[in-house]
Specification:
heterodimer; A: 732 residues; mainly alpha; 3-stranded mixed β-sheet; 31 helices; elongated; B: 441 residues; mainly beta; 4-stranded antiparallel β-sheet; BTB/POZ_dom (chain B); Beta_prop_At2g24240 (chain B); T1-type_BTB (chain B); BTB domain-containing protein (chain B)
Chain lengths: 732, 441
């Protein structure tokens, strides 16, 4: 226990023995008293330390400790009262200097008195639980000087005035201020707190209340924050210069309360310069300052986050619902990526990479991206564009960065299976037309999808790559075993596994005789090596390179689709063909045929055919000729098919329908999995569980889940409870 | 220190000494030399430039050597008390104290003294103080000794039988005594170790009424709390907690049904786990109950009892227990000084008796004393009959045995202030064991 603690116990008065020689004690005390006077009067040079020490020792030894101690208290009190008067008499600013000087004198005197009375301090004081000499000197100074009615308020007011003057920009005597505040600290925590700290905090609170009112009226948000930050730094500096370190927390919290907490909403929503404006204008420094300041106060960051979130949601919503934007999917996705980069930057540069802000950003994106049902399609189109040509000449790292960003958007999608559908279609086109820029990039994206959604998600996509590779080998094998085929047309077959590819059941058209014999040979070869398989031709997906001579000597190589090739080959044997003739000879489905004829007869620069009568569309009674006047700067001419890059409305419906169809077995599988482990479950819980299980792929529609449950009940996988109709039971 | 020249000459009681300022600096500021050569003081020298001190030159010479070498040699012709008095004058008593014996090591202990007292009854407890003193409880009296082994005024609380004693600091001792029926006497008191004055009497409040009680085993925590087992007239069975600063009761852990707290033989505050070990043992109770109390949520964090254990293992009755926080285990000892261990992280633990069991079947002394345990800086001590065994290492290997044939069995011992005190049940004598100062080379 410290001395302070021990004083809580009751002390009995010291009863000393009969004094043998009262004069001895008085005489000795007179010597010591005289010495104390001399010490206070700066006249100690004539004193003998050894003699005084010995006298004090003897007094304690001869049981005159209490006389010595009470004498010390009285003598010191008398001196301090004199000192008090001389300090009170000091005028104006001299007051503080006089107080400081006398304090230093007192400390020195106290040290010397303690030296003389060291023996008493060591033996008499602990055993009688009296206050040790140094502490006694402090207490007497406190009671006689600092707590004297004529000094106490004057000291406080002068100290507070010094602080105020420094706050308003004046230079003050920091050394003197520090010494006096240090004096209060030396007198004990409670003295410092009562006689300085508490009033100081009150005055500061008032000061900053007023100042913040003034600033909020005349400054914009950025300026205000700058000023608040400067004030905080000033106060911290003040603490290190002349206050107790323990005050830092308290004064800082006063400034925070007055300058930030009280004006939080006003600052965030400040007209023309508030948070939204800072976000719009990418004011990283101001945003960073706002973050730093607001994170000091309760709920500060929460407010920033709320406003940022609603701003991102609003702008995002506008972005995804703007019909202008929907016209160009690539631009649409690029805008999303730009928006994300912008906020990513703000969070990194200004918001200290705060996780909660990242989460807010993610949830906002998730919210508005899914507002537009076409987002999955557009993202896939964006990838398609990038993988077709956009990545040409881009370094590997940059490709990775772009892909990672796309994955970021992909993560936000609720309907990941819709994305998968489109991705598969686009990938199939890229692979079959050999249009992909980089195999590595393709594979890298598939790996990313795999890590994100699991093996199941990408198994078919990977199957497509395998098919491509196997086909290459098969073709090599085919030509190796048929060396006589070198002269005729070259056939390249890509054998696609049913199910892995987005094939539509389509009618095979009639191929030109040369080609169909070759195809038959391949069929025989393939089925010979792979027994038990079925091979059907997807003529709607193929391409062909054919050589053509226009007029006398216009030689060109035409890159066309299989359908186009079939049509063109007919003209080897005829000059003029009617639409009906062509349709009959090729058996190409009418819509495809029209499109294919349109692309060859109506597109400027690619019009290898002529049509009668001339018009933009194909009619059933049109007639077609070879365009002898066809010219082109290039030897190789690519004749595209007229296709909309974006899906048309009916196509969209179809894709949608197929997605819905695909979801059914997945929902059923999830229901059965859950019920198998739970045995019985009520309706609401089953909906919740199924939604949770499937949310990595898509957001299951509760009505659809309900339909699936009913279907499973019909097929005797589940049954309803007899009493509680909302309860389902699993039937093994 | 403001000494200008390096050499200093003293005239002590007529004899001349010459030393250096550096040597005197070893005395520190809180000594006469520290003050004397402070710049505040203009040192008065005689014309011969000597400093005169009116003290015993022989003792000065010993103390000057102490300042020079840090070691203390007292010639046989100088009474120790005289030297201590001189050291106190110069402010060098702490120097003398710390050079008299070395830092504690259970394997290097030497018997330094035996003190014989006049108490009529058997010894109850001995407790080492923080600075090398001790107090000994005999019947209703507690005798207090400072580190110089001078006896101070004995302590007593209403002349009631003392159950336990403890040092709060070198100035204050708490004693717990039995209550006296109907008088409100007894309980627990705080005393000055130097004067023996009663400074505070602790109270137990139950339903806002002050109750008289019997205070049992004591323990102190580093955050200024006092724990004591309490038995009151009615419901006040359990562990009381008081604040050392205010002396007020701040908590009470009531004894749960079918358990024992109020009769505890031993309390031990575990600083790291923030709980209190309470052990009620045979033969005070028919069964042994050991528990760790968590006062924050008023629950037993861990407990063990031998209720229901087969009676055939009678020789394995726990007689003392001590918690070893570093190993998260509780060590127990039976009447044959077999050590057993329990892990207090497992709730359903049983005692793992050490295979070291000696199956000691030698003749028990007429007045057997039950074994006691103590732990000090990784060394485990266990008293048995007239000797104390020291165990070290992770497997608690027996490394030393402190024994002395005089005084009968050891009924209690205590370690503190770098000393070990052993109290014998007969002859009213206690021994002081110290580690000698480090060797010269």
């Amino acid at each position: 226990m410290s001395n302070q603690k021990r004083r809580n116990f009751q002390i009995e008065a010291f009863k000393h023995r009969v004094v043998v020689d009262p004069k001895y004690a008085d005489k000795t005390w007179k010597i010591l008293e005289h010495a104390i006077h001399e010490i206070y009067n700066h006249n100690a040079s004539g004193l003998s330390f050894e003699e005084l020490y010995r006298n004090a020792y003897n007094m304690v030894l001869h049981k005159f400790g209490d006389k010595l101690y009470s004498g010390l208290v009285t003598t010191m009190t008398v001196h301090l009262q004199e000192i008090s008067k001389s300090i009170e008499a000091a005028q104006g600013s001299l007051f503080l200097e006089e107080l400081n000087r006398k304090w230093n004198d007192h400390n020195k005197a106290l040290q010397m008195i303690r030296d003389i009375l060291m023996y008493m301090d060591r033996t008499y004081i602990p055993s009688t639980l009296k206050t040790p000499v140094h502490e006694l000197g402090m207490n007497l100074w406190r009671d006689n000087i600092v707590h004297s009615s004529k000094i106490r308020t004057r000291l406080l007011n002068m100290l507070l005035e010094l602080v105020l003057r420094e706050r308003t920009g004046e230079v003050i005597n920091r050394g003197l201020t520090r010494n006096l505040i240090k004096m209060l600290m030396d007198l004990g925590c409670s003295v410092y707190e009562e006689d300085f700290e508490r009033p100081f905090l009150e005055v500061s609170s008032e000061f900053y209340w007023g100042e913040s009112q003034k600033f909020i009226e005349c400054c914009d948000c950025g300026d205000y924050l700058k000023k608040a930050e400067r004030r905080l730094n000033e106060e911290m500096e003040r603490v290190t210069h002349y206050l107790d370190a323990k005050s830092e927390k308290k004064i800082i919290s006063v400034v925070e309360e007055e300058m930030i907490t009280n004006h939080m909403m006003g600052l965030i929503h400040m007209e023309n310069s508030g948070l939204v404006n800072m976000l719009l204008d990418d004011k990283f420094v101001d945003l960073g300052r706002m973050y730093d300041l607001f994170c000091r106060v309760p709920n500060g960051l929460l407010r920033i986050r709320e406003v940022m979130t609603s701003h991102i949601r609003d702008t995002g919503k506008q972005l995804v619902s703007d019909p202008e934007r929907l016209k160009d999917p690539v631009e649409f996705v690029q805008r999303l990526l730009d928006e994300r980069d912008k906020y990513d930057n703000i969070i990194t540069l200004s918001f200290n990479n705060d996780k909660t802000f990242q989460n807010a950003l993610n949830s906002s994106f998730e919210y508005f991206i899914n507002l537009n049902p076409r987002s999955p399609e557009f993202i896939s189109l964006f990838v398609d564009e990038k993988l077709r040509k956009g990545l040409k000449g881009v370094s590997e790292e940059d490709v990775e960065i772009i892909l990672d960003k796309v994955m970021m958007l992909f993560r936000y999608l609720q309907e990941k299976d819709v994305f998968e559908k489109y991705y598969k279609q686009h990938l199939a086109k890229r692979l079959l037309s050999g249009k992909t820029v980089s195999d590595d990039a393709e594979r890298s994206l598939i790996v990313k999808l795999k890590t994100e959604c699991g093996y199941q998600f990408t198994s078919k996509l990977e199957g497509m790559f395998t098919d491509m590779k196997t086909s290459q080998d098969t073709m090599q094998g085919f030509y190796a075993s048929h060396p006589q085929l070198d002269d005729g047309p070259t056939l390249t077959v890509q054998v696609l596994t049913t199910g892995s590819w987005p094939t539509q059941p389509s009618v095979t058209c009639n191929l030109p005789a040369e080609m169909s014999t070759l195809c038959e040979k391949f069929r025989a070869y393939y089925l010979g090596t792979h027994t038990g398989r079925r091979l059907s031709w997807q003529t709607n997906m193929g391409t062909a390179d054919i050589k053509a001579i226009f007029g006398k000597c216009q030689k060109h190589e035409l890159n066309v689709s299989t359908y186009q090739m079939c049509v063109l080959m007919l003209f080897n044997n005829a000059d003029r063909l009617n639409y009906k003739d062509i349709e009959q000879a090729t058996e190409i489905p009418a819509s495809d045929l029209k499109r294919c004829l349109q692309s060859m007869a109506c597109v400027k620069g690619k019009n290898v055919l002529r049509k009668e009568p001339m018009s933009k569309d194909i009619w059933e009674d049109d007639a077609f000729f070879v365009n002898d006047k066809f010219t082109s700067k290039f030897y190789k001419v690519k004749i595209g098919t007229v296709v909309a890059q974006k899906e048309s409305e009916p196509e969209k419906q179809e894709t949608r329908q197929r997605v819905e169809e695909d979801r059914k077995p997945q929902i059923e599988a999830a229901i059965v999995r859950i019920m198998k482990s739970r045995r019985q479950l009520d309706h609401n819980n089953i909906i919740a569980e199924v939604t949770k299980q499937l949310q990595l792929r898509f957001l299951a529609n509760p009505t659809e889940i309900k339909k699936r449950i009913e279907s499973l009940i019909e097929r005797d996988f589940l049954e309803r409870d007899d009493t509680d109709r909302k309860l389902y039971r699993y039937l093994a | 220190m403001g000494i200008q020249k390096d050499r200093v000459r003293f005239n002590v009681g007529g004899r001349l000494f010459e030393t250096t300022a550096e040597t005197l600096a070893n005395a520190g500021r809180n000594s006469i030399f520290g003050a004397m050569f402070d710049e505040n003081w203009t040192v008065q020298t005689d014309n011969s430039s000597e400093y005169f001190i009116d003290r015993n030159p022989d003792c000065f010479s010993i103390l000057l050597d102490l300042l020079r070498t840090g070691e203390l040699y007292i010639p046989v012709d100088i009474p120790e008390k005289l030297l201590y008095r001189e050291a106190l004058f110069y402010g060098l008593l702490a120097h003398v104290r710390s050079s008299k014996w070395g830092p504690f090591d259970g394997n290097r202990l030497q018997l330094s003294r035996s003190i014989t007292g006049q108490a009529p009854g058997d010894g109850t407890a001995i407790r080492a103080g923080p600075d090398g003193g001790c107090c000994v409880a005999h019947g209703s009296m507690v005798h207090v000794y400072d580190w110089m082994l001078d006896e101070h005024a004995p302590i007593t609380l209403d002349y009631q039988r003392v159950n336990d004693v403890g040092w709060i600091d070198s100035q204050s001792i708490v004693i717990s005594v039995c209550e006296r029926l109907g008088r409100g006497d007894g309980g627990m008191g705080l005393f000055s170790s130097s004067t023996g004055e009663l400074r505070h009497k602790f109270q137990v409040n139950h339903d806002n009424q002050v109750k008289s009680f019997t205070a049992g085993a004591l323990s102190f925590s580093s955050d200024c709390k006092i724990f004591s087992s309490c038995k009151g007239r009615s419901n006040e069975y359990g562990i009381g907690v008081w604040d050392q600063v205010t002396g007020k009761q701040i908590d009470f852990f009531y004894e749960p049904l079918g358990w024992s707290l109020g009769d505890a033989d031993k309390l031990q505050w575990l600083h790291g786990s923030n709980c209190l070990l309470v052990a009620s043992l045979f033969p005070r109770k028919d069964n042994c109950y050991i528990s760790l109390l968590d006062f924050r949520d008023k629950k037993m964090a861990w407990s063990w009892s031998d209720i229901g254990a087969p009676t055939t293992v009678d020789e394995k009755r726990v007689r003392d227990a001590i918690a070893m926080e570093e190993n998260s285990s509780i060590c127990v000892v039976n009447e044959y000084e077999d050590l057993g261990f329990m892990d207090f992280r497992n709730t359903a633990g049983s005692i793992r008796w050490s295979s070291r069991s000696r199956l000691m079947k030698w003749k028990m002394p007429d007045e057997p004393c039950y074994p006691k345990l103590a732990l000090h800086e990784g060394q485990l001590f266990s008293s048995m009959n007239d000797s104390i065994s020291v165990f070290c290492g992770p497997d608690w290997v027996l490394t030393s045995r402190l024994g002395r044939s005089y005084g009968g069995s050891i009924c209690d011992f205590s370690i503190g202030g770098d000393r070990l005190f052993a109290l014998h049940s007969e002859e009213n004598v206690f021994d002081i064991w110290e580690t000698p100062p480090p060797p010269i080379i």
